[in-house]
Amino acid sequence: MLQLLYAVIFAEMFVIVSFLFKTPARKLVIVTLDRLKRGRGPVVVKTVAATLLVVLASSLYSIAKIRHRNLDAPVANPTDQVLVYKHMLEASLMGFVLFLSLMIDRLHHYIRELRLLRKAMEAAKKQSRSFEGGKSVSAAEHKALVEEIAMLKPKIEKLESECEMEASKAKALETEVEALRKQSEGFLMEYDRLLADNQNLRSQGALRHGPDKRELCQVTHSEWVYIA
């Protein structure tokens, strides 16, 4: 039991030391722990830790029991003293194993978080570099756009002046069309008035020449009678 505990302690110390220095063993240990924490690995580790806790509690109970028994005896039994020291050593080693296991777990967790943070920082640096490159490109594009705007300004002013001239011409044409429309309306009114006057004159002429035609017919008839 003691040899196994010493072996586990030395193995855990090797793992902790490998975490402190950047060596190939460190990468191997990290990969092994990553695989150990997948699948059924955590269940196995928790089972072993629970077993160690039970054995530790049993050792502590045995120590307390032996000491309580020696209190009643007038002389201490050497065998009991050896058992007490043995149980104390085992309890100390098991507690040290559990403590080192917890330390390894925390170190592995922090190293993994540190790796993730480094990757995030590298991604942020790449993004910032690409942003700076895009910023320089956008500055060049902005300069080109400013030059193009400066070149297009005279053309725009020329087109605006031409547009104003065309608008003034269109307005003049509209006024001319309006004047012609009013003039045509006046002509139509004058034509209607003349047409009405013509109708009145025709009606008056018909009224005047109607009796003369009757007298002429009577005279002509009487002449024909006289000749006969």
From TrEMBL:
Pfam families: Bap31_Bap29_C (PF18035). The chain crosses the membrane at residues 6-22, 43-64, 84-104. One of its GO terms (biological process) is endoplasmic reticulum to Golgi vesicle-mediated transport. Keywords: Apoptosis, Coiled coil, Endoplasmic reticulum, ER-Golgi transport, Membrane, Protein transport, Transmembrane, Transmembrane helix, Transport. Residues 156-190 form a coiled coil. It is found in: Endoplasmic reticulum membrane. Its main location: endoplasmic reticulum. One of its GO terms (cellular component) is endoplasmic reticulum membrane. Residues 155-202 form the Bap31/Bap29 cytoplasmic coiled-coil domain. InterPro entries: BAP29/BAP31, Bap31/Bap29_C. The keyword Transmembrane applies. It is a multi-pass membrane protein. Belongs to the BCAP29/BCAP31 family. PANTHER family: BCR-ASSOCIATED PROTEIN, BAP, ENDOPLASMIC RETICULUM TRANSMEMBRANE PROTEIN. May play a role in anterograde transport of membrane proteins from the endoplasmic reticulum to the Golgi. This is Endoplasmic reticulum transmembrane protein. It comes from Glycine max (Soybean). The lineage of its organism: Eukaryota, Viridiplantae, Streptophyta, Embryophyta, Tracheophyta. The gene is LOC100812220.
